[in-house]
Amino acid sequence: MSGLRFDNSESEVAYRATTDRRVLEVRGISTRIDGRLIVDSVSLSVSRGEVVGVVGANGSGKTTLVRTLAGLLDPDSGGVVVDGVVFDSSGDGASRRNWARKVAYMPQSAESHPFTAFESVLMGRYPHLGRFELEGSGDHDLAWAAMERTSTTEFVNRKLDTLSGGERQRVVLARVLVQQADVLLMDEPTASLDLRHQILTMNLVREETRERNTGAVVILHDLSLAARFCDRLVVLHEGKKLAEGTPWEVLTPSNLRTAFGVEGLVEPDPVTGKPHVLILGTDGSSSETLVGMGRTVHLICGAGSGRELMHQLRVSGYEVTVGVLGTGDSDREASERLGLEYVAAPPFASITDEQHDSHLALVKAADHVVLLPMAVGMNNVRNVMAALSADEVIVIEPSKVLGDSVDSEVSDYTDGIAAGLRRGLVEKFGEIPESTLLFELARGR
Fold first, then answer.
1. Which of 155, 349, 420, 430 sits 20 to 30 Å CA-CA off 290?
2. What are 314's strand-pairing partners?
3. Given this model, what pLDDT does residue 55 score?
4. Paired residues of 106 in beta bridges
5. 105 with 70: CB under 8 angstroms?
């Protein structure tokens, strides 16, 4: 409580309720392997009933972090606390056995050995037995129940080394469940599984944390799967914690760019409503070599006219800003999903002086200004007016529609004001098809 101040007793009660629910606290863990710092000062906490996902690129430190939490690696600094008990790697066998009652670890690759599947699952009960105590009927019942939950009873008498990788993974999951620990540490539990068993596995993890009031830390590579089943996510990048929060807070285009080196769009899954990550692409090179690196393109658009171009520009490495967009505009939704800066406005409201000034600042700061064909009314005509302040404007010609006919006029609901402004820009700068814009930008137009 040192250093924490509360304005009233209700706040203090809320704080205590939160900390009382914490089953795992990781305090500034740093771990080295062969002298190299792999995990750098990572802190996180897990509450009872909560599933926390750990995501990040290969080599970001995920497995090293979880192995450290499991007591398999000694940290250089920091501490791990489970249910109020501080882990001491130098402890005797009894203290380690007690720790094993509190923490269950599922490795990335399921081991292969000549024990039967049932014997392997039963090993999860060892931390609960005395030094020379044998498993009893209750332990056998728990092991069988865990195998039923993981659909592995058909392997009960099969040797583990005769099973496929996915089948062994499900047996190891049963062993983790039968351990009945306070914290589940799982390193890519779905890696060897087909789609059906990926869902079943993550459902079991959620069920276990909810019903037994435990906590789980799960490493996952599938970001959409992580968003669907995890209450919170931790993103690791180069051994450090890049971000932590709910899936919506964490899975942003900026974090995807930094942690994975990809451009992505994050939208609600139409069925679950949870974040769904769509990877737009990457050129496979470092960010320094992307064609657009270091340049900003400002789009004046609306009603979906700029949505696709935003994606293309971001994949090419450009910074993208957007003009004034009202609530509910599909271009605004795309801007938010891609993490782009834009000027926010209420739906169908006229652009205010303040919003117009903010827009002009974005126009001035950009290396390139692009005016897209869009419907213009008196409420948003100042978007087009803002283009007049640019030294140069790239005007995109209207797209082809049916057959070979061309929509030569942009929808204008301003009694010709918007059309006149656009014609003036076309006369001064010309216009190009949208399909050639990236080429024009790349050659330094």
1. 430
2. none
3. 97
4. 186
5. yes
Structure tokens given for 237: 């990048």
Domain end (from 228, 262, 296): 262
For the record, the structure tokens of 275 come out as: 């974040």
| Gap between the Cα atoms of 299 and 323, Å rounded | 6
pLDDT at 281: 65
205, 310: one domain = no
State the pLDDT at residue 89: 56
- Give the CA-trace dihedral at 417, 423, 429, 432, to 10 degrees: 110
Strands 183-187 and 215-219: parallel
Q: Quick count: other Cβ atoms within 10 Å of Cβ 89? A: 14
Cα distances (angstroms) measured from residue 252 to each of 256, 264, 329, 341, 371? 6, 8, 19, 13, 26
Q: Is the pLDDT of residue 104 over 80?
A: yes
Range of the domain at 165: 16-262
The stretch 143-149 carries a mean pLDDT of 94
DSSP secondary structure string for all residues of 65-86: HHHHHTTSS--SEEEEEETTEE
Structure tokens at 109: 């690759």
Residue 243 and residue 294 share a domain: no
β-pairing verdict for 275-281 and 431-432: unpaired
Contact of 319 with 295, CB cutoff 8 Å: yes
Query: Is the same domain home to 193 and 335?
Result: no
